[in-house]
Amino acid sequence: MPEIFVAPKKIEERPKEKTLTPKKIPSLPRGEKQATNPFSAFAVMPAGIRFETQEEEEEIVLILRRHSITNLGWILFALLLLTLPPFIFPSISFLEAWPEQIPRGYLAVAFVFWYLATFGFILIEFIMWYFNVSIVTNQRVIDIDFFNLLYKKFSSTRIDRVEDVTFRLGGFIRAFFDYGDVYVQTAGTEINFQFLAVPHPERAVRIIIDIMGEEEPKPE
Questions:
Q1: Residue 135 forms beta bridges with which residues?
Q2: Same domain assignment for residues 96 and 166
Q3: Separation in Å, CA 22 to CA 19, 25, 35, 57
């Protein structure tokens, strides 16, 4: 016979595991691909990159640097400096007017110093290009300017303070390589931003305008 008077066994309920709610990440701008090159001058939602004042819920949407073609001048000059010593120093060593009291071993020191100075010049120019950046996040517009290795200027404004975004693209070279200047106008007495010689200025303006639209309050 079934035991109808037996009390049912109590089933111990296990405590529910806490689930972590993922942070809200802005969607990839329409028509854009996520950047994978850390040295890109136009990087959309780059992965694994943060800056020093980035807030917890703040996500980078766009990073802008001067177009790579603007580095052509100092790169050509650096190549010239790298190729000159093999032609200059041997010719100096065979000059009849070379003072006998100066050891010819000094040429080796001058040779090494030349290349150290050249590589130092290349490093400084690269750092000035790489760290002079404009950053657009889902909350702010940021401009970081390095004037030298010891002095840095940091400017930022909230997205909701941006009133107008325009760009200027003029000249054959700029039109051919598709780079120009982006101007961000802010409200009141806040500083206006100029992103000079950046790639794809029209796309950059469209992305910023899209973010501004996301920040506008939705009608109830």
A1: 63, 142
A2: no
A3: 9, 9, 22, 11
> CA-CA distance, 135 to 156, in Å (whole number)?
9
pLDDT per position as a tens digit, 21-44: 333 445 666 667 777 788 899 999
CA distance 106 to 210: 62
Look up residue 171 and give its two tokens. 């000249």
Q: Does residue 161 fall inside a structural domain?
A: yes
pLDDT at 24: 44
Residue with tokens 């917890």: 56
Q: How far is CA 201 from CA 33, 63, 124, in A?
A: 16, 12, 26
- Report the distance separating Cα 69 and Cα 75, nearest Å: 10
Under a CB-based contact definition with an 8 Å cutoff, are residues 184 and 192 in contact? yes
Helical spans, DSSP H, in the chain: 72-83, 85-93, 106-131, 172-177, 201-215
Q: What is d(CA 59, CA 15) in angstroms, rounded to the nearest whole number?
A: 34
Kindly state whether residues 202 and 106 are assigned to the same domain.
no
Which one, of 191, 216, 201, lies nearest residue 165 by Cα? 201
With a CB cutoff of 8 Å and minimum separation 6, the contacts of 218 are none
**Which residues form the domain of 189?**
42-46+57-66+132-215
How many Å apart are CA 59 and CA 122, to the nearest integer?
32
The structure tokens listed for 15 are: 């405590």
